[in-house]
Structure formats: structure tokens, C-alpha cells
Amino acid sequence: MLARNNTFGLATLRRSILQQSLRRQIHISKPFLPHRSIFINPSYRRQIRLYSIEKQSNSNPKENKHASNPNSIKNSHNGSIDSKLAENDPNKIAPSTNPHTHPKVFNPTKEQLLAKATNFFSRLRIRFKWLMKRSNRPFNTDDYSALFSWLVMGNALLFFLATTTFFSLVILTANTVLAQEFVARKLGEFITKNSNLTVVFEHAIVPGWSDGKISFRKCFVSKRPKVSKTFIKGSSSEAYAASLIRESEEEQAKLEDDGNYTQYDVTIEEVNISLSFKKWVNGTGIVETMEIKGLRGVVDRTHVHWDPNDDARNYKNVYHPGDFEFEDFKMEDVLFKLKQPNGFREFDVAIYNCELTRLRKHWLFYDFLNANIMSGSYDNSLFTIHKRQRLDDFRIDETFAEESNRIKQHSESVEAIVDSHSDPSTKSQFQRVTRLRVDSLNVDHLNTGLEGPFGWITHGKVDMIGDLMVPQENKDLNVSELVSIIAESIRKEATRYRNPAVTVNNHHSHLPQNPSSTITTEDILNYFVLDLTIRLNNVKASVPFQTPELSYINYALIRPIVAYINMKNTFIEIHNRVVKNLDDFSGSWTIYDSLLMDDISAEVYDNFVDYVANEEARLVRMKKFGFWSLQLLLQLMVFGLGSLT
Q: What are the boundaries of each domain within the chain?
């Protein structure tokens, strides 16, 4: 009996200690039990269940009298045994002694959650939640707002930093069978802003993930007088057939323009572009780079006409915000038929390869003159534009420079054929020298519509070799020789013959009248020099029917110049130096609206005048020499007869 009482007392003591511990734990973790009950250890659940049973038994007085019942003692004894087992359970989390801290709750790992998954979608859901939150708890409002903010900011950063990739993702997402035309129209109108183009493509827009560009395949580009511009998806053959249909007079009256510009219908095999948000914000267009491969078509200029005595500068491009400025432009495999106005014959123009560091709409002609490399044919006449190569381009030390000078001295005889009119030391002052070359060009491309000396030549071939020099952009530039070049050009312009009978504008580039007082180092950077060598082969000339209305032409010298050309028709070489202001190329697209052709014609006329004067002086010298020779011969004959007598 005593042993039983001791056992009962020991069990009661242990039960009281366990009750106090459970009260403390339940008080601490009570707010979190409904949410985390699924993660509580099973032994911990047994302790909570035992505590709740004992609490109910203490609150019921009818059950207290049965506390001495052996069954209750046995149950309590079993409960103490369970408590001991719970204390020895390794999975049991020890209660925290700090009343202000929450107990550690067991969180299942991803591997455990995946092991309990039954199908593919549940595994996908678990992996997605684990990627987003590193747990398996349900999504709440904070999670949804964070995910939405992340999507918005991520797309915004992608649009700012990688515009091409952003549009590629948009195209890839929306480029379905039903949305292809809509995507093409919206993207095309956005890209071809400030241009009256009709673009039709056969294949879908393809984002190029390897090179980071957007590709357009089988594009048909047309610029014709239309009521509105379109960018749609369709067949290029049908679009070309539709462009050839003549519109009625009523529709012609509704057109936005009269068609007095270059019109074209071309088909492009592939166009690759990359986009830039920075350029779009700066107002230079959203297209950063462009690459054209496989262009075929017709360029029609038969609709172009000019008013009498019209100035070519009136047709320059007017700058608008958003005009394209490509940072890199490439073309290859380009062939089109060019139709000129005034009944000129049709001919083919081909571009084999073209690479430009930049191409700007407002400086189109000037950027093509400064191309890295460009080769092609113009009416079966080969032309090339490339950087001129010199032996001292990459000199490192004085030894290499001396060796280059020694080699240069041996090659002076060869270079003198082309560069006898230019100074190599002067060319070294320029940032780069671009070599332009045209071989065997028909002279009718130069004499059509011109009133200068080129207009007097009716037949023949022309070879042209030019060096285009752009000054260096630095403050340490030695401008003495460059100032002398510009001053010589100004002197020639000031002393050039002025025909008093002509009141038409001279149309020459504007140069300062007093170079000694107006030209500074900053002004040098606004000029470039063109050394042009023209070789006339097997040419014939005729006196013009109408007197040319050019202020620099002397009517009395037209016939001597024509006679000189016909006399030296086999080979005539003319060296010209043209100094132009870079502002003349602003908005120019051709050699005419930049006034470069007028300057070349004036230089050619001056050279012909010098040649005619030299020829006249040579004839005078020959006459004097012949008269002196005849006089000497007569004197010898008289002296001989005198000696015989």
C-alpha cells in the first residue's frame, strides 16, 4: 500500500510538472497553432491532447472523486510513460525558455513536398511556389502585388536597356496567325515614321535571338503617290501588280502630293534591324542598326521635274524630329533599274557591298561619301569608295617612319600620276582620306542637263579618282597649310572671270571673303577638301546651241575649249581641288543639291582655260621658233652663197 502511494505521488508530481510546461508552451504558440498545426510533431500533439483531457477532468468535480480509481491511476501512469517517451523523442523541439520568442516550427523541404506530389501539375505548382517564396504556403495579397510590381519593373528595364529584346518578346508572344497583320502594321508604322512608304511582307516577323536583331523576310517596299501609307502582310507579287495600276484622274486629284520625287518599287529578301530606346528619346528614330540583303526592283525618277532657273537647294531635305540616324548600315547584293527623267535611257545600278559607320537622313550624301567600303557598278562602270591606304598609317617609331619615307620616295613616280596636285603632308593633317574611283563612265551621265564644259562633251568615257579629306577634330591641329588651301580656293573664287551679261545666281559654296581675318581653328573643322583627277578618253565636243548662263564662263573661250577637246580627244587629264563648307551637305541627297557638281564644273572650266592658254602660248612659241629657224636657215644660205662667190 505504501509503495502504491509512493508511485501515485511520483506520477502526480510528474504530471504537475508536465502541465506547467504545456501551459507555457500553449500560451506562447497558441496564436500560431491553427496555421501551423500541420507541421507539429506527433509527440507534441499527444502532449497537447493529454493536457486538454486533464484540464477537463479538473474542471468536472464528479470526475475528481474518481482520481483514486486504479484505472485513472493506470491511465495517468501511462500518460507519464508517454511524457517520458515524448521527452526522449529526437524529433521533439525543445520549448523555448524565453516567453517572448516563438517556438521553432518544422518546415518541409522541397524534396519532401515533391515526394508527396501525385501528378505533374502538383509538382509544377510546388516548384513555382518554391521559386517564388521558398515555401509552400498559399499566395496572399502581398505576394500578388510583389509579382505584379516585378513584372512591370522588369519589362520597363528590359524596354530601356534592351529594346530589341523587348520587341522580340512582344513579337514572339503576339505573332500568331490572327495577330500577324496587326503586329506588322503597328510595328511597321512605328518604324517607318516620317516616310511615305507602303511595306508588304510575305513571311512573319522573326526575332533573331542569335544576333539580337529583328528580321523581316520577303519585304516589298513602295513609295508612290498614295492617300495614306500602309504596312501590311500579304504577297509581294500582288503588291507590285497593284502598284503598276494607273489611277483615274479623280483619284489623282485626291492625292496628297504631285509625285515630284524619286519613286521606287523594290523587293528585299531580308532586312535585319535593331532598336534603341535611347535613340528614340533623343529624337533620332528608334532603329539603331540596319542590314539589307538581296534587293531587287525599279527606281523611277521620270516624274521628277524642275522649274526653269530653279535652284537645286530648294529640294534639300527638311529636318524633322524622328528622322532616321543609323549607327551602322550595311547592304549587299543590291540590283535595281534606274529610270531618269527627260527620256534618258534606262540602266542598271548594282551595289555589291556597302558598310557605313552611320547613315543619317539629313546627311545622306555626305555619309555615303565617307563610307568605310562601298563597291558596285553604275551603268556597267565599276566604282569603289574606301579608305585610302598609306604606308605610314600605323607607324610606331622613328625607324619605321624612316623606312616608310624611303619606300615612299621610290614610289613617288607612281603616286605622281594621281597625287601630283596634292601634298602628302597636307593629307596627314586630316582625320581620314577616302578614295573614290569610277572607271569608264559614259560621259552622257555628266553632260545631261548641264551647261558647263561637261555639257559640251557629246561622246567619250570618263575616269575619276578623288581623295576626300576631312580635318581632324582636335585642338592641336596645325592649320597653316589648311588655311593656305582654303585661302587659295578663296583667291581663285575672287579672281574668277565674271560674265557681266549673266545675272543668274552662281550657286557656288559660300566661302569667307577675307580668310586672314575670319578663318580660325574652329572654322577649319567645317571644311573638307576634294582632290579630283578626271581623265577624258576618246571624247568629242561640240559648241552648245544656246549660250550657257553661267557667270564664270567667258563666251569668247567656248570655241577654243571645244577645239582643244577635239584636238586632244585621245587622253585629257584634269586635276581639280574643291574646297567646300560642310554646311553645303546639310540636307543634300545628290551631287547636285549639294552644289558639288557646280564646283567641279567650275574647276574643270578653269583647267580647260589654262590648258587653252598654255596651248596658245605653245603655238606662239612654236611660231616664234619656226620663224627664228627659218631666219637662221636663210642667213646660213646667204652666208654660204657669199662664201661661194
A: 2-106, 112-160, 177-362, 417-645
